[in-house]
Design goal:
Blueprint: H1 2-41, E1 44-48, H2 49-55, E2 58-60, E3 63-79, E4 84-87, E5 93-98, E6 105-106, E7 111-116, H3 118-149, H4 155-182, H5 186-190, E8 197-201, E9 206-211, E10 218-219, E11 226-229, E12 234-240, H6 242-245, E13 253-258, E14 266-273, E15 283-289, E16 302-318, E17 323-325, E18 328-337, E19 341-355, E20 358-363, E21 374-377, H7 379-390
Antiparallel strand pairs: 1-19, 2-21, 3-12, 3-16, 4-11, 5-7, 5-10, 6-9, 7-8, 9-11, 12-15, 13-14, 13-16, 14-15, 16-20, 17-18, 18-19, 19-20
Length: 399
Amino acid sequence: MNFKILKNSIAILSIIILLTSCGEKNASAETHEDEHSRSEEIKTVTFSKSQYALAGIKTGGIEQRNISDVIKLNGKIEVDPSNIALVSAQLGGYIKTAGLIIGTPVKKGQVLATIENIAFIDMQQDYLESLGKLQFAKLEYERQKELREQDINSEKTFQKVASQFKILQAKVSGLEQKLDLIGINKNNVKSGNISKTVNLYAPINGFIKSSNAIIGDYVTATDVIFEIVNTEKIHLELNAYESNIKSLVIGQKVRFSLANENNFKRAAIIHQIGKASGNDRVIIVHCDIDETSMQGLLPEMYVKARIESSTTLQKVIPSEAIVTFDGKDYLIMEQNKSDNTIIFNLIAIKKGIEQDGFTTITFSETELNNTHNIVIQNAYTIISTLKNSLGGDEDGHGH
């Protein structure tokens, strides 16, 4: 009897488990159907007639336009080589004065620092001594020349005096060049004004980009004390690759932006295309920047550039017609319009090139048969309504 009761209990338990399992499968299927239904539902939005009027919606069609293929390059702003100057002390010495800091604007010929060196004194003394000897040698040369013309002295004597005169001429000329090179005025030396210091002057207009001037520090002739940069003449250097070169020509227009800008309104023109170099085969493309695009540009700033090449006929839509929902791009099509309601469908697309307010598109799923009822103005109001109806956040994700 107990065995029979146990057998019946097991049978009943098996039926309960089976029913529960079926219920879970049905619930799972219903959940999947609900999710699929929701996925389909979010592609449709219904507006009342009053909503439609208030939103200021405008519809239009997909167009065919000639769109340029775009080459995307990166690069930076550079200074023309003729507008960069490195300042050093030609004979070295101790820095006596230096009051300019990085960023200070300077004019060509302005004193940057003062250098002190005992060698300056030696050079000026040597110049004065050589100058005195030259004056005496000149008088002796002229005397011997006159005697030679009268055949009073020998040719050998005259040639010896002439040789000494030329040697002293060369020495004095060389010392004058050295004095000029280190910034000492020979006329001051001739007047007896010997200086133990020389000034370092700015060779160009610009600003101090770097400074290694420390008072009391000893510098050699190879040490760079100041770097001066004139930013009035800057250009664009873009990094291209061999695959890009066939599409680039001198005179081609370039649109570029700084790293923190979201548009490509700045303009330039290609004026030189370099040769491939290095293991990465990078080719430097030099571009002249339009005067209207100079504002805010500084050397070493990184830029993004777009260069238009050949044109092809492509499907485009006004850029403001494209909306983003759940990380995907859509067009909104006016699907059905009755007396009381207007139904919109979201059509998935892939964006392409954007030019002059239009963007090329391809369809992610199927081509549209009717391309004339696309919302091209205030499409964002439809997406906002959809997000609100789903209780989603700003990115359109439902909770």
